[in-house]
Amino acid sequence: MLSQNIEESVRIDKWLWAVRICKTRQVAADLCKRQKVFVDGQLVKPSREIREGQLVMIRKEGIEWQYKVLKCIKNRVGAKVAVECREDLTPQEQIDKLKMMKEAGMPRRASGAGRPTKKERRDIERVFEKGAMFEDGF
Predict the structure, then answer these.
(1) CATH assignment of the domain containing 88
(2) Is the full-model pTM beyond 0.85?
(3) Into how many domains does the chain fold?
(4) Do 39 and 89 lie in a common domain?
(5) Which of 4, 89, 119, 134 sits between 20 and 30 A of 54, alpha carbons compared?
(6) What is the DSSP string of the chain?
(7) In terms of DSSP bridges, do strands 55-60 and 37-39 run parallel, antiparallel, or are they unpaired?
């Protein structure tokens, strides 16, 4: 089944969706439009064609994910097959950074939500003050 899907080149948004890096093709296209996707160090638009052997860097979840294109596919495949089409080159320190952010429960504001109000800021400060108390052993 995979041999039917292999292409010489494919659009970056289709590839990101096909190898299960992005949940939908629209999410992949939005990442490109928001200048979060680089191919061989250059910003790309969703229509950019990629080929085998190229390096793709994606900024999402606060870290930089790096992948090498092993196979160009245009249709979404199962998770086990998707792993064969890409090689994860993300440095371990980036993955550790993501784990630390998730464990710490760092609050993240939605994009475009603006600055926190005075009440929200005080609530955030209270959470961190309580967290600091537990770290000190109180």
Answers:
(1) 3.10.290.10
(2) no
(3) 2
(4) yes
(5) 4
(6) -HHHHEESEEEHHHHHHHTTSSSSHHHHHHHHHTT-EEETTEE--TT-EEETT-EEEEEETTEEEEEEES-EE-S---HHHHHHTEEE---HHHHHHHHHHHHHT---PPTT--SPPHHHHHHHHHHHHHHHHHHTT-
(7) antiparallel
